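Propose amino acids for all 494 sites.
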């Protein structure tokens, strides 16, 4: 589906109850009016223009002018003010194609009133137009007679020939019927106007849905929040790599796996670092980071997942090793149920995160982790509210920006993109995630099989496994987190 069109459909779907409410109100209002309408009758009278010296097409043009004059507000007021027509009668006029025939219609509540009103209105219009033409003819005749009258006033003598010529001219003027209206038919029939209530209600329903749809589209366009990936693209200029739907959607796990594939095919160096941050505080950051780490671990990549949000204490981990208190790397690496995945919790140090997460310390730690892993995934705090997030993004080979739907606003995304650009953060793309989502683990291979394979490797003296066995077991807090992870993974596989 076209991106712009799908965006509008998503907006209408989001405001579906508003759309349905507007359609219902319009339909009910129309139904009330339709059932309140009564049958009316339209009577018709016909006039025509008689111009013996002109073609009918020329009189047809004049007829259109007469219709406009009859339909004008001023003449309609004149007709109503005359008192000759009922006040509740509606009058209109029209022409028969390009012919000189004029129809005068009168609509009333009764058949008799409609017939009488049409005939009366036609007669009044006929008399008004012809009276004006007659007045013009009288002025012309007076102008023709004036020379004769002037001679007679001076007691002069007018020759018989001159007198006959003037009289012939006067007779021609009187005989000219050009532009005059002629009564063609005072009763051209009556039309019964019965309201089609069903059709009116259907049109009202369709119109209400269209009106509601337009309002929904406008609300979505002016909203500062996001309802779909299309809206993110339309409002920020960057289209999300994936849109992860809410819990219960069968497409949720597929979208997560697609995101893992995007990261895998992004052409990152080996080893690589990926930072996951967000525009506002969101549980989606840790969920996306864990999904990527576990997905790549399942695919056979030695991966370390770091909770780099030091705003809250979490076990023994990152903050402790960055303080430089002789904490070894093996002391903070926690073993997970997945053989290829190790985790590092946020740590328990009380030091200011901004002071602790310097570019030098973060770079040195990542360098050490790359010696024992092929991928490091950092779950960073929101870049708009934590300055240290910029350092974590700058130190990474790629950055994923999580947009929490609908908590994030347009201004948040734009600010996040600007902050990334300020430190030359390499944005891989954005991820739109539903706020109610609980990302399932993309693992498709039984963890038990991986554990068994790891045990076999240990027994065989595998060098990589030997390095892994030097890792310190998880703390109590990490154990609980990894236990939850295993439970979720098992649920996803079931």
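Proposal:
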């Amino acid at each position: 589906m076209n991106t712009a069109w799908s965006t509008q459909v998503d907006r209408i779907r989001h405001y579906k109850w508003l759309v349905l409410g507007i359609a219902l109100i319009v339909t009910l209002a129309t139904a009330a009016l339709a059932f309140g309408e009564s049958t009316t009758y339209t009577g018709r009278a016909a006039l025509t223009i008689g111009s013996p010296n002109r073609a009918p097409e020329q009189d047809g043009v004049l007829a259109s002018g007469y219709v406009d004059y009859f339909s004008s507000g001023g003449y309609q007021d004149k007709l109503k003010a005359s008192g000759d027509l009922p006040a509740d009668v509606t009058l209109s006029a029209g022409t028969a194609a390009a012919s000189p025939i004029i129809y005068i219609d009168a609509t009333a509540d009764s058949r008799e009133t409609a017939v009488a009103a049409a005939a009366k209105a036609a007669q009044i219009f006929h008399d008004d137009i012809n009276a004006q033409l007659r007045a013009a003819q009288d002025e012309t005749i007076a102008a023709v007679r004036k020379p004769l009258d002037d001679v007679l006033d001076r007691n002069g003598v007018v020759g018989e020939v001159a007198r006959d010529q003037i009289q012939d001219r006067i007779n021609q003027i009187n005989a000219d019927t050009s532009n005059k209206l002629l009564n063609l038919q005072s009763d051209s029939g009556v039309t019964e106007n019965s309201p089609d209530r069903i059709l009116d209600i259907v049109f009202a329903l369709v119109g209400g849905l269209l009106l509601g749809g337009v309002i929904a589209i406008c609300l979505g366009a002016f909203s500062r929040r996001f309802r779909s990936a299309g809206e993110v693209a339309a409002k920020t200029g960057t289209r999300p790599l994936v849109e992860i739907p809410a819990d219960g959607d069968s497409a949720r796990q597929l979208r997560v796996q697609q995101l893992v594939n995007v990261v895998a095919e992004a052409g990152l160096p080996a080893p690589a670092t990926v930072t996951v941050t967000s525009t506002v505080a969101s549980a989606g950051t840790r969920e996306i980071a864990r999904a990527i780490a576990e997905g790549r671990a399942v695919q056979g990549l030695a991966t370390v997942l770091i909770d780099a949000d030091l705003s809250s204490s979490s076990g023994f981990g990152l903050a402790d090793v960055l303080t430089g208190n002789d904490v070894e790397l093996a002391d903070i690496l926690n073993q997970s149920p997945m053989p290829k995945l190790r985790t590092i919790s946020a740590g328990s140090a009380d030091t200011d995160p901004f002071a602790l997460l310097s570019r030098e310390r973060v770079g040195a730690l990542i360098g050490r982790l790359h010696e024992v892993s092929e991928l490091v995934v950092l779950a960073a705090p929101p870049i708009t509210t934590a300055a240290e997030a910029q350092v974590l993004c700058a130190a990474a080979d790629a950055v994923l920006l999580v947009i929490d739907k609908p908590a994030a606003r347009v201004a948040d995304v734009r600010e996040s993109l600007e902050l990334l650009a300020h430190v030359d953060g390499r944005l891989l793309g954005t991820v739109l995630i539903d706020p109610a989502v609980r990302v399932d683990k993309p693992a498709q291979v039984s963890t038990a099989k991986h554990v068994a394979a790891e045990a076999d490797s240990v027994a065989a003296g595998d060098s990589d496994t030997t390095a892994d066995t030097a890792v310190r077991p998880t703390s109590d807090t990490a154990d609980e987190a990894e236990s939850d992870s295993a439970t979720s993974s098992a649920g996803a596989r079931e």
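Residues 128 and 181 are 10 Å apart (CA to CA). Residues 440-494 have pLDDT under 50 and may be disordered.
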